[in-house]
Amino acid sequence: MANIEIRNVYKVFGAKVPTAMAMLRDGRSKVEILAETRCSVGLNDVNMSIGAGQIFVIMGLSGSGKSTLVRHLNRLIEPTSGELLFDGQNIVSLNPQELRSFRTSRISMVFQSFGLFPHRTVLQNVMYGQKIRGTEHEQARAIGKKWIDVVGLSGYEDRYPFSLSGGMKQRVGLARALAADTDVILMDEAFSALDPLIRSDMQDQLLDLQKNLSKTIVFITHDLDEALKIGSEISILKDGQVVQCGTPDHILSHPADDYVARFVKGRQIHA
Ligand SMILES: Nc1ncnc2c1ncn2[C@@H]1O[C@H](COP(=O)(O)OP(=O)(O)OP(=O)(O)O)[C@@H](O)[C@H]1O
Ligand SMILES: [Mg+2]
């Protein structure tokens, strides 16, 4: 299990980063900064504390910075400034070799568009994380088969992704992340492309699995119902800033501002 601390993280995209950062610190808006500098503000002084073993949901409308933030956690994006601490270690300062090992052993990702290797079978996809860590073939196969079974895809080991439905592909994506045996799993809109019923099944399965696994799961969604159902804690982003962070219960009962209040109007906590 891993504890993640995100401290004062800023991300500005564009050519005039110092000017844009100075404007941000002066309290100028994302729109003003874009108009004056052509720079896009991805994240603006984000602070979050993601406790080990919880499903932490990051929610917000399109363009609020969710993917930008999650890509910082596996260092696909470098922060303009700030710290990202995994169990106290700042991952921003990892050297290339440490970064490779961090990515293979500590963190795995489930993508909205599945991200499966089309020319590999279900089993080869699921074994992948173990293989690149150097696990011996038979052992990697056994681990792969175990997780394929857990997500309910036994019998499909030799199939190729093109022959699977969306829900099945995402089960493979989930099995692949679980088989990699990392402390942290990042899920960026992982269930958003699925039909409502399949999506609800996947949410239930994730909650069920988490009872035994206690991984640190960072789950991105733009859907409040999904956030309320699966999150132990929810952080709401708007224009790259955290507007509220708290338990589903707290967010429903004490929305921090009108933006959050509009999201939660008429909603209830799932049983
Ligand atoms: N590579 C990039 N270059 C320039 N601007 C970017 C880049 N990546 C993200 N942005 C900007 O950063 C902001 C946040 O984008 P991001 O993709 O993180 O949002 P999101 O919350 O994931 O949205 P969605 O729900 O649509 O996936 C947006 O204004 C976006 O235009
Ligand atoms: Mg996104």
Quick description:
The chain has 11 helices and 10 strands. With 271 residues, it is an alpha/beta fold.
Report on this structure:
- Helix content is 41%, strand content 23%.
- By secondary structure, it is α/β, with parallel strands linked by helices.
- It has one domain: P-loop containing nucleotide triphosphate hydrolases (Rossmann fold, 3-Layer(aba) Sandwich).
- The strands form two sheets. A six-stranded mixed sheet has the order 6-7-8-3-9-10, with helices on both faces. A four-stranded antiparallel sheet has the order 2-1-4-5, sandwiched between helices.
- Helix 8 links the parallel strand 7 and strand 8.
- Helix 1 runs antiparallel to helix 2, helix 5 packs across helix 6 and helix 5 packs parallel to helix 7.
- The chain is globular.
- It starts with a strand and ends in a 7-residue tail after the last helix.
- The structure holds adenosine-5'-triphosphate and magnesium ion.
- Adenosine-5'-triphosphate (ATP) binds next to strand 2 and helix 3.
CATH architecture assignment: 3-Layer(aba) Sandwich
Terminal Cα span:
26 Å
The unreliable regions are none
- Given helix and strand content, the structural type is alpha/beta
List the ligand species.
adenosine-5'-triphosphate, magnesium ion
Q: In terms of quaternary structure, what is this?
A: single chain
**Average pLDDT level:** 93
Percentage of residues in DSSP E strands: 15-25%
Give me the Rg, rounded.
Answer: 19 Å
CATH class annotation: Alpha Beta
Shape: globular
Number of helices: 11
